[in-house]
């Protein structure tokens, strides 16, 4: 399971020469897709062999066999990401529960954009099912349930006495239920923050959820993206995951619209940027808080070998405008900009073309100060 920490560690790997292979393979095909899947894998392996034809060493042959074994072995996951150095000293392999695009890239560092896009689309998601006696928590991440916790409180059994005794008994039961829900609220707070969940989905009866939302911590209330009403907590994991993923997609689209709205507002206050040149300079000065990038956006340019400064220019600059260092050509400076944003702890958001506004073309940024 890939994590943000894994991506940050991969982002630190930079070699002087292009000897890092990045491979993304969609996996686990259906019966009707098996033939196409096999052809795609074979094409990928042929391209990899052609790409490494200049390397006729024993280490390269061993590496090719290792990659072939990994991409062709039976697996239950939906995708695979492999990062390896040609000398065989570096190897990282990640199974993915989200299907990636089929890609093969040879550079001086791991190609991380597909992983960044997946993590942007699928945040850690907490699902909490609650009633007056029980509770179930689920951690949903990258399209699957990866953890579950259950709670139960023992309540005094009902009896058939009437009159005031029955009313006192009901108050007693209501008091126990309230105590239970407050305990669940505290447990959910710890669960959400320990697991770094960005969103919460609630399930239960309308009455119980109304009461529960009133007593949970305000920080949790802000993370709630929806609720669904059920009379029993005995819901299958498959149904829970289906509801969570539907709600997650809606929440992600809403978040993208909100970020774009905020960017437009800050643009008028000189606290945001809309030109590639200005954004690259801001990244060099480590002043980008949020980097917005259109899906699929690419741009060639130049990078300083001394300070790493990026320049968008069709012609080679005489020298780095930042430190006077030597500039080298980069076929995709947007990828390098993403690497720099990741290093600086900037928030990265990929925006679909359907959301683009007339003021937003391909890239934008919100400044830290």
Summarize this entry quickly.
This protein has 369 residues and is an alpha+beta fold.
What does this structure look like?
- With 369 residues, this protein is an alpha+beta fold.
- The protein has three domains: 4-111, 2-Layer Sandwich (Translation, Eukaryotic Peptide Chain Release Factor Subunit 1, Chain A), CATH 3.30.960; 122-253, eRF1 domain 2 (Nucleotidyltransferase, domain 5), CATH 3.30.420.60; 268-367, 60s Ribosomal Protein L30, Chain: A, CATH 3.30.1330.30.
- It is 40% helix and 24% strand.
- It has ten helices and 16 strands.
- The chain has helices at residues 4-11, 34-51, 58-72, 113-121, 163-194, 206-215, 218-221, 237-267, 276-284, 333-343, and strands at 20-26, 79-85, 91-96, 103-107, 125-130, 134-141, 144-152, 199-204, 224-229, 272-273, 288-294, 301-304, 310-311, 327-330, 347-351, 363-367.
- The strands form four sheets. The chain has a five-stranded mixed sheet with strand order 7-6-5-8-9, with helices on both faces. Strands 3-2-1-4 form a four-stranded antiparallel sheet, covered by helices on one side. It has a four-stranded mixed sheet with strand order 10-16-11-15, sandwiched between helices.
- The longest helix is centred in the middle third of the chain and has 32 residues, at 163-194.
- It is globular, with a radius of gyration of 26 Å.
- Residues 156-161 have low confidence and may be disordered.
